[in-house]
Amino acid sequence: MRDIAWLIGKTLQTTFRSKKNILFYLFTPLVGIFISLVAYGGQSGEMTFGVVNHDDGPIANETITFLKGLDNIQITEIGEGSIKEKVTSGTMDGVITFNQGYSTSVLAGEPDHIELTSIKGESVTGFVKSYLYQYIDNLSTLGKVADGDLAMFNRMYSDYQQQDVQLKTTTVEDSSASKTMTLSALGFLIMIMMFSAANLSEIILAEKENRTYFRLLSTPITARKYILSNVIVNMMVMIIQAIITLVFLSYVFQIDLNIPLWKALLVMVIFSLISVGLSLVIVAFSNSRSASNALTNLIIMPTVMLSGCFWPVEVMPESVQKIAAFLPQRWTLDTLTKLQEGNTFGSLYLNILILFAFAAALFLVAIYKFSHNNDTKSFI
């Protein structure tokens, strides 16, 4: 234990040997918060939805009028060709499309031919769905009673509109912006943690190149203790980065995580194991620091982008989304999203097991490679 404690102190001294390193490891994660604030901080409580009307029937027109009458939602009629651009650019929170046959289907009592396009998930679209689908259900009920008779439907619909109904409304706080901002900041934290882990593990290669590693092994210090001390320091830095980010989000910038802080921290601690495991795999397959840097950039940046750390994974093609399902970053963000939706850790046991499986697999690959690497004098 004394040897490990000494190695941990030595690794910490090497890691934080300059102010530049201190700033990089401890305060770079805050960059993600600032980027998220710039990207999402200006969002207002009013949602903006586009409407594409291919049906142009009386019921479709009445539905659009109903939508325009809802509070906190701005409805704009747009063309078919601008749907993707409006949604992906963030100009609109979503687009509702009434396809040909919508009015007929509602009149028949079987509503169909309506689509809701959005990349912001249930936190944004749930409000619209709750009102719109209820309204359409009411219309379809009238359609069933009218048995397809448009004149009778119009009379009943007129009576329906004139009903004297008491409705009490309560304004609730819109949490969609804070959820999106939180996930964006944590997505940047994931990227920074992975690069930080790679840089810390690269110390192993640096000390091999300057022969420090081999001098250490000439003492009672073993390769296992050396690697273990590096892993411990790596985990310490990862956890500190996660704590700093979450504390600044919650208490400095007053952004609601929509998750208990300890739950978010626990997920990031599990991901830190994955980051350290991946960094050891990179080191194990690298013969020099330049090779390690190349592998780091080749692996981390593409997987971070594919997993949805920078933008919602829903904007990417379906084939790319299937690839994202094999990435630990995707499962980490998915776990955080489901926790925001109110799921418990118990109900997310599969996500947690998958994250631990990623970490275990990476550590096993690193151990195997180190133990069979004769060129680098076998770490383990």
Automatic annotation (TrEMBL):
Principal localisation: membrane
Keyword Transport: yes
Regions that span the bilayer: 21-40, 185-206, 227-253, 265-285, 294-313, 348-368
Coiled-coil residue spans: none
Gene Ontology CC, one term: plasma membrane
Family affiliation: Belongs to the ABC-2 integral membrane protein family.
Name recorded for this polypeptide: ABC transporter permease
Species of provenance: Virgibacillus phasianinus
